[in-house]
Structure formats: structure tokens, C-alpha cells
């Protein structure tokens, strides 16, 4: 099988490319490297993973056979999509259309990497696929949430025209190859713990998240590529954890004596997130296998082997905090996870 993976040089994309290559598929990784890194797939390039530097918001052509297109290209962490708002809307809309066109031209299976963010700040808990969500269309996070909602709509419309499309709604995923300074809660806590810096918790820390280890997630992505399921299917670990519990776990696993610091909660920060995974279990036989303790141990190990990147990220996190403090004119202009951002962007930089 020959699979095109858009966004294949990113965190999830590179693990997907690796899983496909390891089972003998040929892979074409199409990526503009805006948030991804070539080093994520460097080790796969002699194993049948071809890299094409391409912005998928431009027409996408791939010669030769294409059996499946997995569309993962999109900035995914809040600092990234707030820094790239128009690009995020473009890749969710035009980018998805181009990836769908490519799949249709080749009669290939198409899988959209959608997100739990389509549920916004959910009024229904836990989140099942019939729930339509609670998204502020002009809120700071809307560039990402609405782009993905459009991506789901256009994917569904293509299915209406007999294209073999499927939608996976991915919940928070973590693991090796997350960028240490990507602003997500798992990477930020690990960086802070390994550097002896205080762990930054927004709000009381009682807001919950569910964290899926990357290997589990990729197993589901591959099963979705191999199936003809339409979805949408939630995919994520249904074990719910408060952000405060996560901080404690990271402290235990790293053996760090860092303190935990509390800051005001950002605007539109979802308070609860947990997937109902009955559908994906029934449709694909998928359920998570890696515990949060084991997944965090593997992730901490990966970060600990990169002390320079961790030190740089710790510095950026500290800079974000003190930079925000310096310019903070009002209570709702909040410190950020990874890098100094303008005040409007800080308000959206939730703990994801
Ligand atoms: N990581 C998660 O927890 C999570 C959760 C929900 C959904 N997702 C979705 O999974 C996908 C991958 O997320 P990730 O965490 O690996 O993020 P990432 O930023 O590591 O990877 C995204 C990749 O897309 C590439 N890209 C962005 N715009 C592009 C464009 N116009 N043309 C070509 N390439 C482009 C980037 O360079 C990067 O390699 C995204 O679509 C994201 O929305 C991720």
C-alpha cells in the first residue's frame, strides 16, 4: 500500500509514517515544515518514506499509485495556531479540500485527523459523537476549532459523493517527539519538572483532560486507514485526570522537587474533556493499552535525553511568564505556556 501523510513531519504524523513504514507500506510525507521537523522522519527516509516539501493549501499532486491519504497537516498547539491564524484556517479548509481531491483522483481512502476541539467547551460530559459542541465562532480558539469543523463538513460532503472518507476526532495525545516548547500541558510540565522550575497550573487545576499515549493513537489511525468507516469516531484515552493530578504525576515520575504555581484560567479553556470511545471500540476494535504512568515514563525519558532542548524550552517558558507579568494590564491577560504572546493570544493559550 502507498499512503500519503500530510503533516507527516509533525509529532503524530511522524509516528504514523513510522508505523506504516514498519509494516511495509510506502509512505509519501507531504509537509511544509511550518511546525514539523525533518529530523522526525530522517530515520525513515531509507526505509521507504519519501519526503515532499509541500504546502497543502496549494494544489497537491502525487505521481504514482496512492491507496490512502491521511490528512494531518495543521498547526495543532495553541501557541502555533494563534501565531498562524490564517494559515490554520487555510489548511483546515483549502488544505482539506486539496487532500480530498488528491484522494478522489486516485480512488484512495481518505482519513481526516479531526479533534476533540470540535466540541469546544462541552456542555455534555463525557463527549460522544452525537454531541454538536459548544464553540465560540469568534473566540480566540476559533481559528482551529472552526477550521476542523469545516474540515469535517467538507469530508462528509465528499463522502456524500461516494468518496471513501473517514473522520477521527483525536483527543489530547502525548509522547516522544512532542516539541518541548509546544505549549501543551504535558510537555510544559515535563520541561518545568526536569529544569527545577515551578509547574504552571491555570485555574484551580480541577479542570480535567484525558491523555492518550501516541502509540495507542497511531494504532487507531492505522486501523482507520485500513477500514471503510465514515466516523466521526472519537479516539483518546477515557481515563480522566485533573491538571493538578497530572502535575503531581509528572513530579513523581521525574523525581523533581519543583513547586506547583497557580495562575488565572484562560478564556474559553474547556473545563472537562473525556471521550466516549464505544464507537471506535465497536468499529475498529480499538482501545488504549498504555497507562498514563507508563506513557509519561517513556515521554520523560525522551525529554531527559535532550537536555539542551529542555533547557531552551524552560527558558522560553520562564520568559513567557515574566514577559506576560511585565505587560499584564488586566486580570484576564494571562501568562503563557511556551513563549511570549500578545495579550489576545495569551487569553486562548489553554492547558491542552
Ligand atoms: N497532538 C494532539 O493531541 C492532537 C489532538 C487532536 C488533533 N490533532 C490533529 O492531529 C494533526 C497532527 O497534530 P500534531 O500534534 O502532530 O501537530 P504538529 O504541529 O506536530 O504537526 C502538524 C504538521 O503539519 C504540518 N503542516 C501545517 N500546515 C501545513 C500545510 N499548510 N501544508 C503542509 N504541512 C503543514 C506541520 O509542519 C507539521 O509537521 C493535526 O491535524 C491536529 O489538529 C492532534
From TrEMBL:
It is a single-pass type II membrane protein. GO terms for molecular function: GDP-mannose 4,6-dehydratase activity; NAD+ binding; UDP-glucuronate decarboxylase activity. Pfam families: Epimerase. GO terms for cellular component: cytoplasm. It comes from the Bacteria. Its main location: Golgi. It is found in: Golgi apparatus membrane; Golgi apparatus, Golgi stack membrane. Its EC number is 4.2.1.47. Residues 3-236 form the NAD-dependent epimerase/dehydratase domain. GO terms for biological process: D-xylose metabolic process. Keywords: Decarboxylase, Glycoprotein, Golgi apparatus, Lyase, Membrane, NAD, Signal-anchor, Transmembrane, Transmembrane helix. Residues 333-352 are annotated as: Disordered. Its cofactor is NAD(+). This is GDP-mannose 4,6-dehydratase. It comes from Actinospica acidithermotolerans. The lineage of its organism: Bacteria, Bacillati, Actinomycetota, Actinomycetes, Catenulisporales.
Amino acid at each position: 500500500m502507498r499512503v500519503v501523510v500530510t503533516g507527516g513531519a509533525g509529532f503524530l504524523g511522524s509516528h504514523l509514517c513510522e508505523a506504516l513504514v514498519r509494516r511495509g507500506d510506502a509512505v509519501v510525507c507531504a509537509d511544509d515544515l511550518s511546525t514539523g521537523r525533518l529530523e522526525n522522519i530522517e530515520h525513515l527516509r531509507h526505509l521507504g518514506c519519501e519526503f515532499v516539501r509541500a504546502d497543502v493549501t496549494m494544489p497537491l499532486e502525487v505521481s504514482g499509485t496512492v491507496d490512502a491519504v491521511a490528512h494531518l497537516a495543521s498547526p495543532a498547539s495553541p501557541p502555533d495556531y494563534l501565531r498562524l491564524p490564517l494559515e490554520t484556517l487555510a489548511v483546515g479548509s483549502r488544505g482539506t479540500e486539496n487532500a480530498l481531491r488528491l484522494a478522489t483522483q486516485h480512488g484512495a481512502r481518505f482519513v481526516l485527523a479531526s479533534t476533540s476541539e470540535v466540541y469546544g467547551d462541552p456542555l455534555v460530559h463525557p463527549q460522544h459523537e452525537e454531541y454538536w459542541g459548544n464553540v465560540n465562532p469568534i473566540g480566540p480558539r476559533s481559528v482551529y476549532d472552526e477550521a476542523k469543523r469545516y474540515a469535517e463538513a467538507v469530508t462528509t460532503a465528499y463522502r456524500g459523493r461516494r468518496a471513501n472518507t473517514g473522520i477521527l476526532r483525536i483527543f489530547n495525545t502525548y509522547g516522544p517527539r512532542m516539541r518541548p516548547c509546544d505549549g501543551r500541558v504535558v510537555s510544559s510540565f515535563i520541561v518545568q519538572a526536569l529544569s527545577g522550575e515551578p509547574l504552571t497550573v491555570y485555574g484551580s487545576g480541577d479542570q480535567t483532560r484525558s491523555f492518550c499515549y501516541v502509540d495507542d493513537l497511531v494504532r487507531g489511525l492505522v486501523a482507520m486507514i485500513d477500514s471503510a468507516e465514515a466516523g466521526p469516531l472519537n479516539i483518546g484515552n477515557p481515563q480522566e485526570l485533573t491538571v493538578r493530578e497530572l502535575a503531581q504525576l509528572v513530579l513523581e515520575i521525574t523525581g523533581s522537587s519543583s513547586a506547583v504555581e497557580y495562575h488565572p484560567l484562560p478564556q474559553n479553556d474547556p473545563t472537562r474533556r473525556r471521550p466516549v470511545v464505544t464507537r471506535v471500540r465497536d468499529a475498529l476494535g480499538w482501545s488504549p493499552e498504555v497507562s498514563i504512568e507508563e506513557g509519561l515514563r517513556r515521554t520523560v525519558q525522551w525529554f531527559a535525553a535532550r537536555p539542551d532542548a529542555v533547557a531552551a524550552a524552560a527558558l522560553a517558558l520562564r520568559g513567557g511568564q515574566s514577559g506576560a507579568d511585565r505587560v499584564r494590564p488586566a486580570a484576564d491577560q494571562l501568562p503563557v505556556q511556551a513563549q511570549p504572546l500578545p495579550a489576545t493570544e495569551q487569553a486562548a493559550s489553554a492547558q491542552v
